[in-house]
Amino acid sequence: MRRSLLPLLAAAGLAGTLRAAADVTLTIDTPMAPPAWALLEQELLKANSVACERFFEKYVDARGYLLHVPRWGGNDGPDDAIELFYNWTLLHALGGKDSLRQMFRKALDGHILQYSELRTVKTDLGKDGAYFDEFITCFDWFHTGEGLRGFFFQGLADPTDETLIRRMKRFAGLYMNEDPDAPNYDPKHKIIRSLFTGSKGPLLRKATPYDWAGDPVSGRFHLLHNPAGRTRMLDFMSNYSKMLAHFAEYYDVVGDHHLNLAATILATNAYMLTGEKKYRDWVLEYVNAWKERTEANGGNIPSNIGLNGRIGGEHGGRWYKGVYGWNFTVFDGELGEIAHRNYLTAGSWPGFANALLLTGDQSYVGVLRRQMDNIYAQKKVENGRLLLPQMFGDPRGYKYTGREEWYHYTPHTFSDRLTEIYLWSMDRRDLERVPIEGWIGFLEGRDPDYPVKALEREFEELRRAVEAMREDPTTPTTRLADWLLHISPAQTDTLTNLMLGGYFPRGRIWMLHSRFRYFDPERRRSGPPESFGALVEKLAADSATVTFVNTDPVAPIRVIVQAGGYGEHHFVSARLDGKEIPIDHPYVTVRLGPGCGARVVFTMKRYVNQPTLAQPWDRGWMVKQ
């Protein structure tokens, strides 16, 4: 069933100025020999799709169940099992085969059923199933967010799917107190009440190692979180005590945490699927509360907000405490060494970026910039190397002695997160801290061969994944969920860079911030026609340069080009063949003659339209004001 967003937007009072679909068509009829990058893009999309089909055939049964031994836990639990398909819906939106969308639906439905059947003994969090009402019962947003990445992107491929819309609304409602069984949110203090939350509500006691590690199982497995298990199979029971030791100090979970900002992705997607204002309002209420707290904390994003709403309220005012917080320095009993695990950026970056997406207000990026300023203000240079602190608080972690300082200096410069700040702001001053290399170097005109080299590397990664699949020594009874993470084949990072002008640091919780997105009006689906190639060559605050090509020498094609991953940007005009063509719309139709191509310079406004997942033929459009 296909639904239009227009009635919903009008009912929500957000429709603003609605217009019919863009009637501007850019016609490109200049012959262009197929560039190597365009042919590589097309072949990579095809090869990715076929490899995913083979992966699905080998590792998923007729019910959609993953062929493995299911377990609860942070090492190889439910999030890893569905994370295997984390970018398949994105691959479809880039132009991959329709089978990707169908396989993801089946894998997600099967996954929810499979883990709803799981029962735990050592922790009450999963005693009646790892999932309740289709959502994880209670876990942290670092793991929950990893597992939901493919679901977050399902709207790119399936925006009219009723099951997707129903789930997204209900899951978002878990953090808006719409489910009486899950009082995760405190509207008075504007906090999510625990690091552990879900469909059974917040965990308001100290977590145990069993809450994190789950139950033991019998058998021999590759234990990827154990160094020896990466190269050979180990007996699970003899290593279970080490697994528990890994989580021995993971107990302080009560109160709000910067990781919980990732929960805003649910409500942002619900808003983009339905246009219902309440989802937008909640995201801004929650993110604004974090914005105020961060300002009050000198620009440092706290890792603990007490149940009383105060910064550091569960730890005597120490804002840096809590699991995965600024001072989370622990002894990892599994590895036998001290570990520093501050997950500052995993939830806060997507959270503040969601508020930017919904409002266009650059002050949200300013919060992240100031956080980086605070860290860089503590820099050291040793032997010519820049070192930055990764932690704050007592260097002995939970063995508190009263010391508070920046510590654990490493060469990690947060370059991936600085790149995001620059791409969101397009302020050239933000570029000063970003390495001018790789894709950013190409955009800056320093490496014209980068597109071909990067695409060739993706083919090598795909070949490696397929070889690992072919030589996989495990069986369904000797395989845990995390083992397949290095085998799942889809490669999308470079395609997102080159085709969309978007950027994803590896392993992060995702939303699609990009300059472009494409739709096929003939097949009525996300993703461009098969013979279409796009290369984003330059990005500026008010413009973007991209080359389009039709590699088919026989037939013309049409493609709808959207400004932004969710139509949040706006085309002002296009410069083509020396002519300036007015557009004034968030998307435009491009007609490419057989074997034709051209470079187009789009003048655009960024973050001025309300984001939507509706496809162009199903919507009008609206400006933020």
Task: Give the gist of this structure.
It contains 19 helices and 23 strands.
Word description of this protein:
This protein is of the alpha+beta class and 625 residues long. It has 19 helices and 23 strands. The strands form 8 sheets. A 5-stranded mixed β-sheet has the order 1-22-19-15-16. The protein has a 5-stranded antiparallel β-sheet with strand order 17-18-23-20-21. The longest helix has 24 residues, at 36-59. The radius of gyration is 24 Å and the shape is globular. It starts with 5 loop residues before the first helix and ends in a 20-residue tail after the last strand.
Helix-strand makeup class: alpha+beta
Fraction in beta strands: 15-25%
Mean pLDDT value: 93
What share of residues is helical?
25-40%
Physical arrangement of strands within the biggest beta sheet: 1-22-19-15-16
Number of strands: 23
Count of alpha and pi helical runs: 19
Principal-axis shape = globular
Q: How is the main sheet built?
A: 5 strands, mixed
Low-confidence stretches: 1-21, 621-625
Distance between the termini: 31 Å
The radius of gyration is: 24 Å
Key descriptive features of the protein:
disordered N terminus; alpha+beta; 23 strands; 5-stranded antiparallel β-sheet; 625 residues; 5-stranded mixed β-sheet
List the topology elements.
Elements: H1 6-11, E1 25-28, H2 36-59, H3 78-83, H4 88-94, H5 98-116, E2 131-132, E3 135-136, E4 139-140, H6 141-147, H7 149-152, H8 154-157, H9 162-173, E5 185-186, E6 191-192, E7 196-197, H10 209-213, E8 220-221, E9 234-235, H11 236-246, H12 264-274, H13 277-296, E10 329-332, E11 337-340, H14 344-359, H15 363-376, E12 380-382, E13 385-393, E14 405-410, H16 415-425, H17 438-443, H18 450-470, H19 493-500, E15 516-520, E16 525-526, E17 532-540, E18 543-550, E19 557-563, E20 570-576, E21 579-585, E22 587-592, E23 597-605
Parallel strand pairs: 1-22
Antiparallel strand pairs: 2-3, 4-7, 5-6, 8-9, 10-11, 12-13, 13-14, 15-16, 15-19, 17-18, 18-23, 19-22, 20-21, 20-23
